[in-house]
Design brief:
The longest helix is centred in the middle third of the chain and has 23 residues. The chain has a six-stranded antiparallel sheet with strand order 1-2-9-4-7-10. Strands 3-8-5-6 form a four-stranded antiparallel sheet, covered by helices on one side. The chain contains eleven helices and ten strands. Helix 6 packs across helix 9 and helix 9 runs antiparallel to helix 10. By secondary structure, the protein is of the alpha+beta class.
Length: 309
């Protein structure tokens, strides 16, 4: 037996500790075509392994934080934060190694091959190689896996998948729909010359949209530029430049505008007085708030039309 195979077998025989951090979000492959689970392991040391053998099942691993290694007897795939992995195990066993040092959070989708094939359009050109493997009449002998960047839109998709906004009786329909949406994002390759320019434009738009959503959700205590950049998967410098190019304003300017927009709404509806509105949108200094309000609205907040409380 080769050194690689010996190492792999030794790993499979280690205690299965990953189940302690695994939460089933939906489904069972015994009765459903879709299964979703969250792997949340706040460990500071490594070694969490799982055996896996689903030969005709597509797995989509969405790595939100931390690092892990996905391994077959022949090959390893090192998946860093903000990456996505598509895999079909074939007739081989695979192992998952969670690396320590930080909290690890992974969303794993398991989609039955029959469901994937039925969901793909009849003329499905430009399919991802891993998806093509499921369309073959025979299950592949070896593990097929490919990693890619987890786009900002998909990161947001993954972070909220555990809280479906529907009643329990409709969850099977909801998760099946979400599975098809995920396949639409991940199972098709870009068209030749459109790869760089179109894809980059789409990614930039997704990032800008994510930044706007993050800021609107935290007006009073907005995250730092570094924290926002980490959430959307790029460097702070690149994010600042992209945001300015796409919107014509800097991130601080956008934050100021939406703060004043929200403050004006609070005053107009009578929900807050001037001081309360300033604190509600994150201004600790009434004078700074008044100055910004005048610049944006053209009138000081004390003179702005206000509704009755």
């Amino acid at each position: 037996m080769s050194g690689g195979n010996a190492e792999f077998c030794e790993m499979l025989n280690r205690p299965d500790t990953i189940q302690r951090g695994t939460t089933a979000l939906f489904g069972s492959l015994h009765k459903d075509v879709v299964r979703v689970e969250s792997i949340d392991v706040p460990l500071q040391k490594a070694i969490c392994w799982e055996r896996n053998s689903c030969p005709d099942t597509l797995e989509i691993w969405m790595n939100l934080s931390g690092e892990f290694v996905f391994q077959s007897p022949q090959k390893k795939w090192h998946i860093s934060p903000g990456k996505l992995l598509l895999s079909v195990a074939g007739h081989q066993e695979t192992a998952l190694h969670i690396l320590g040092g930080s909290r690890n959070k992974i969303i794993r989708w398991q989609l039955k091959g029959s469901f994937v094939c039925e969901s793909l359009p009849a003329e499905s050109g430009h399919l991802h190689p891993v998806a093509k493997a499921l369309l073959q009449t025979e299950v592949p002998d070896e593990v097929l896996a490919k990693s890619s960047v987890l786009m900002p839109g998909l990161r947001d998709f993954a972070e909220h998948i555990g809280t479906p906004p529907i009643m329990a009786a409709a969850r099977s329909l909801w998760f099946a729909g979400k599975a098809r949406e995920l396949m639409a994002h991940t199972l098709f390759l870009p068209l030749g010359n459109e790869f760089f320019c179109t894809r980059q434009k789409r990614v930039n738009c997704e990032r800008v949209s994510s930044v706007k959503k993050i800021l609107r959700a935290s007006l009073s205590e907005p995250p730092s530029l570094q924290q926002i950049a980490q959430k959307v998967g790029c460097s702070p410098f690149y994010l600042s430049r992209t945001f300015s190019t796409e919107t014509g304003m800097t991130i601080p300017q956008y934050l100021r505008d939406i703060r004043i927009e929200k403050a004006a709404e609070l005053l107009r509806t009578g929900a807050c007085n001037v001081t309360e509105a300033a604190f509600e949108v994150g201004y600790n200094s009434p004078s700074h708030f008044s100055q910004a309000f005048c610049q944006i609205m053209g009138v000081c907040p004390a003179m702005y039309p206000r509704g009755k409380r």
